[in-house]
Design a protein that fits this description.
The complex is a heterodimer of chains A (224) and B (522). Chain A has helices at residues 9-12, 38-44, 50-53, 58-76, 83-104, 112-115, 124-127, 136-155, 160-175, 217-223, and strands at residues 29-33, 185-189. Chain A has 224 residues and is mostly helical. Chain A has a two-stranded antiparallel sheet with strand order 1-2. Chain B has 2 domains: 105-136 and 397-521, Alpha-Beta Complex (Aspartate Aminotransferase, domain 1); 149-395, Type I PLP-dependent aspartate aminotransferase-like (Major domain) (Aspartate Aminotransferase, domain 2, 3-Layer(aba) Sandwich). With 522 residues, chain B is α/β, with parallel strands linked by helices. Chain B is built from 21 helices and 15 strands. Chain B is elongated. In chain B, strand 7, helix 13 (289-299) and strand 8 (302-307) form a beta-alpha-beta unit. The chains are: A mainly alpha (224), B alpha/beta (522). At the A-B interface, helix 2, helix 8, helix 9 and helix 10 of A face helix 2, helix 3, strand 6 and helix 12 of B. Chain A: It is a multi-pass membrane protein. Chain A: InterPro entries: ORMDL.
Amino acid sequence: MSRPSPKLLHLTVSVPADIKGRRRSGSIVKVEEVGGRTEELLDRSAYLNINANWVNAKGAWLIHVVLVFMGKIIIDTIPGMTQQISWTLVNLIYLNLSYLMFHWVTGIPFDNELHGGAYDDLTLWEQIDDGAQYTPSKKWLFTAPILLFLASTHYTNYNPWLFAINLTALIVLAIIPKLPQLHRQRVRFLTGDASGVSTPVTPSFPRMDQNPLHATNPADAHFG
Amino acid sequence: MDSSTSVALEPVLSFLAFSLSKLESGFYRIPGSAVVARYVKSSHQNDPGRTILELILVIFAIRTLLQSRTRTDRSGKHFIKFSEKEIDELVDEWVPEPLAQPLSEWEQRDLSSVPVISGPNGPKPKLLATGKIVTNLASFNFAGLAGNEKVKERALETLQKYGLGSCGPPGFYGTIDVHLDLEREIAEFLGTEASILYSQGFSTISSVIPAFCKRGDIIVADRSVNFAIQKGILISRSTVRWFDHNDLKSLEDTLISVEKERKKRKGPLTRRFIITEGIFERDGEMVDLPKLVELKLKYKYRLILDESISFGTMGRTGRGLTELYNVPASQIDMLVGSVANGLCSAGGFCAGSSIVVDHQSCIKQRINGTSFVFSASMPALLATSGSEAITFLRNNPSVLLNLQDNIRAIRAVLEKTEGITLLGHRASPIIHFCLRTQQQSLAVTQPTYDYEAEERILQDIVDDSIANGVLLTRAKHLRGQEMVESRPTIRIAATAALSRKEVEKAAGVVKASVTRILSKRR
């Protein structure tokens, strides 16, 4: 019985499923998962993540109402402000700021050393409640923009354009990023290969974005 | 036709109208319904399209609110939910397994083949099993310091002064003045600003690497680095790129490709490290240090050099590769060495600039040199033995010339032996040899080796040479745990404590054993 030759593991063990024969140009749009590796999960579970726990406090729920209220009042003080523009502005600013806070910025500002960079790829939304879906905070954060939108359409009479803008902003900035199907998925545009669009790679070419050490059996043996 | 269908549908329509009016009156009887009705009417604003969209939104929101909570990322995937009956069945079927699996026949043999030495270890120890004196070509005793009288005297003095244990980690009452002395002496010896002492040689490099390399940093490492370095890289969670063993062209290609990749991703400039060994423990190859330093400066990487084997053996006075190649030690960012191998004491060190050294000793918010912070520091007598060994090396550089002589003598004899190939650099104090196969010259395809059979043959050679008075050992590796499976080899550690004649005689015995065993096999 002869043992196989010394393996250069990243060439033989894990061949990615998307390489079928000759690889063509990189996709224009690609959805890929981030942050699911075993050692990242382990590093996250070492300590409590205070950067994501604060949304569970009831004060954090109330602050949305308070801020929107104050924002509306402040915007109303601007001379020459009609109700339509005022409500649209409140809606859009709320949606943009909450998108920036929950879905754009990744990583953690506090206690970064404790987790060793395990949260660097995750947005605040994905960190809340360790990635569980339909928790109370998430339900509130889901409902708040919808309520704001409904209130705004109730109190004004939008012309069709403003209605469309508000609705699209709501769907794109508030509803779609919060869907559980998009949890830890990233949509990437025009990812390049190692060699670029014009020179396709053959399957035996060592892939640049593969980390061979993580593909080894010893690592799996350690982490189950 | 028309009238007949309308006649047929009439009872249905009238029933519908009746139920609607019933619903309406019922609705208005609910308190607060008028408010809701007014709200809906004013929201509607005579635009049914808008109302339908808003209604869809409301239904979606209500559906979301009604969903139950799912499991977190952490627990989900590997958790199987059993029913009570299944749990009972599994419990009934359970048969306890022994804590340690019984050893296979090969493992049993491996275990019993480890020789037990009675009395102190040295160049000519006495075996417990047979009572015979054998020549020790297996233990690391490069400069012949094992059993050195001056070192023993000094160690006894220290033992009487300080006792044995150091009673704590270095940061927590475990640092003794002799540790500081040894650290200073190592730094002076090597020509670096400072050095830090670790209490175990193996865990030194696997603590130094994660102290500096974090997730998101880039490490470029040689494929055949030893197990401790591999573990250190694994712990550090950095991104690794491997280059071919001791191939500086491949290293340069890897460095260029890493830079290209970073530019393509437009990522920020992270810390980048090259990790390699001075003399590789796996096969005795030596790295070309000046070229390596040139590459490191050109591509702006930090160099972590593991001189576990080369410290105390290379160079005129044993300072290591920096002395051998005349490269200033300040060019190497972290110079890791072993006090256990080179100075015949215990532990390891990391030498570098004072910033590098201080970084490993402090805790701050994150633990840095883990083995330094959490392991007990080494006993005082081992630290003074190390200091004494450095003094010895400074004063007796001829010892290393003897070592090189002996290495040459061993290699000369073994090169003439049929059936084996010598690996490694010709000046390396570690001499590996493996079995020669017919495919040695044809490297067209990846040759397949039967490692288990080769190990058995090598073990036979080892047993035979022990029976004939030379203590040898195979290079032991954890099969299945290392990144690159290497061929089984026998590792000879040359020592300056033996005279040239003794070494030649011992090498002759080894050669005879090899020939004997291999001819039996044929």
